Amino acid sequence: MGKFIKLYKDNTSRKLISEIVDALNGGAVIIYPTDTLYAIGCSLDQIKAINKIKEIKRKTDDNLALICPDMQSIAKYAKVDNASFKVLKEHTPAPVTYIMEAMGSVPNKFLEGKKFVGVRITENPITQAIVEMLGVPLVTTSLPSGKLDIEDVINPELLREEYENIVDIFIDGGDAFNSPSTVVELANGEVTIVRQGEYTF
pTM to 2 decimals? Predict the structure, then answer.
């Protein structure tokens, strides 16, 4: 059974954030709140943890993305040209995942031959505090398909009952928003909406 940690958006405990980061640096897989739904993730530096997430998702949906702490971090892992920079500057942070050309700093074990990587900067203060202290992006993906109805996936207590046994830490950060992120592809100076979430360009 995974460890349960309760955090509050308006008062994130540095001690608890440090505990989570230490666990991530040790290869932990966590469930945590974002500015959309709850997600499952790990440190980008921990390849075994990334593989564990892929096993949990059974590779039926292995669209892993990176939650970055700031624009500088995005530019380290994704190719940011002038057009992309303008879009990112105007629409970041926001509940948006950007599909961009991956840089060489993204591990091959993460990409598995793909040339593009999803990146985002979250507005959730809990997750933002984690990635700032972690120092590297947080791998993120949606929770595996379970028994919960769509209206129940925003409730951390129900999520905990469903998923806490598959991760090392479950972070309760309050009710989630019942909407996935908007997914936008930024390539060759063009903006393409791949999936429309609640956030609209």
Answer: 0.91
